[in-house]
Description:
- The chain has 308 residues and is α/β, with parallel strands linked by helices.
- It contains 13 helices and 8 strands.
- It has helices spanning 15-19, 29-41, 64-71, 86-95, 108-115, 119-136, 160-173, 189-203, 219-229, 256-266, 274-279, 281-287, 296-300, and strands spanning 10-13, 46-51, 78-82, 99-105, 142-147, 177-181, 207-211, 233-236.
- Strands 1-2-3-4-5-6-7-8 form an 8-stranded parallel β-barrel, surrounded by 9 helices.
- It binds zinc ion.
Amino acid sequence: MTRLPSPEILISEVGPRDGLQSVKAIMPTADKLRWIDALAAAGLREIEVASFVPAQLLPQMADAAQVVQHARRHSGVRIMALVPNVRGAQAALTAGAQKLTLPVSASPAHSMANVRKTPEGMVEEVKAVLRLRDQIAPGVPVEVGLSTAFGCTLQGQVPEADVLRLAVQLAQAGVDEIGLSDTTGMGNPAQVQRLFKRMFQEIGPLTGSAHLHNTRGLGLANALAAYEAGVRKFDSSLGGLGGCPYAPGASGNVVTEDLVFMFEAMGVTTGIDLNQLMAAREPLKAGLPGEPLYGMTPAAGLPKGWRT
Length: 308
Ligand code: ZN
């Protein structure tokens, strides 16, 4: 096997969490595990494999602990879990999650719908998770994704000052990484670039991932705008699976295959083998027959002479 050049950006695959929580069908655990194994084989170094929420709310995630325990076998991959609160964090850390991510919505309307707390109430919850982390798993990084950072289907516009104020509060609380999420696919490239630049000014290297949705077809343009603002970490989902069950009209994360194609074609290394990445669509299709998968690169195929 040829050695890939050391990657310049980190692509974090969120399909097994963001993708699966937005589809009605429940993917069988065995298919989930095969899918995660295929993603690891393609060279992904961070995978958000599950959400630790009550099974009656999201039956798709009832096997979260089992999935985390299985995924930990991939030593080169950081296994990440979404947790909405301390109870979820306790369960995720007990299962062996290697990184936690919490959603803090910049839109009070979305925050109430998603977690039944105000944004300030969620900041307090994050502080409680940090205390738990310090006690039982001090080496595990905690990330916050600021949801609806670029707009909210419930509230409409979200003031940039609200996003930045939350980012500063979270940085002061000791969060390791703070990213911006275009949960409802309302962002545009100028806005994405401006807000990420302001994030770097306010919280410097704690600025985390660009979590972009392709709802209006601007996912890749927004990703490039974020890259130009200095972002080096991107969330995306294989086959563009994803959305938010509490944000009407939100659909489709940026497609991992297309994101990798864009960056690799530009000479920005991802560490991901695009052929193996596209092969990882097979276990996804097998586990979710009938679910539409997106992606222009898988549809068109790789150009002649393509080399990662
Ligand atoms: Zn999302």
